[in-house]
Amino acid sequence: MPTGSCLCAEITIAYEGDPVHRAICYCHDDRKISNTQIYQVLKTSFKVTKGQLKTYTKVSDRGNEISNHFCGTCGTTLYRSGGAESTSDKIGICAGVLDDQSLIDNPPAIEVYVEKRPPWVKQVEGAIQLNGQYEIVSS
What is the dihedral of CA 95, 1, 78, 99, to 10 degrees? Predict the structure, then answer.
């Protein structure tokens, strides 16, 4: 069972199984939070195993409410929930919080908001390219 924690280890998380999606998102919010891979896992396979999270909810670029769940002590965002209806049964773990960093050795399978990708970042070879969250640019 993969586990993770915030920087100060006051909050710990775990999930069962494999991620539904491995993605990197270049939207404004994700670039501010971490700009790392996001592992989407089913809510039913995820749990907070230690600590009390703080939550900040805002309206996303697409007009959906999305919540950031973070440690009130060190400020690390551990995961996000909400967003599009198609992801309502999933949460997006910030892959950088995972304890076993070899889990992120594989590149993301999906790149989201590719129109906002910094020009110095190369396209991930073989990854599905999404303009925003919905339109496939290439696969």
Answer: -60
For the segment 61-88, the average pLDDT, to the nearest whole number, is 89
**Does residue 45 sit in helix, strand or coil?**
helix
Residues found in the chain: 139
53 within 8 A of 78, measured Cβ to Cβ: yes
Q: What is the spatial distance between Cα 92 and Cα 79, in angstroms, rounded to a whole number?
A: 5
Q: Which amino acid is at 76?
A: T
Mean pLDDT of 83-108: 88
Task: Flag whether pLDDT at 45 surpasses 90.
Answer: yes
Handedness of CA 103, 107, 109, 111 (dihedral sign): positive
- Its pTM stands at 0.87
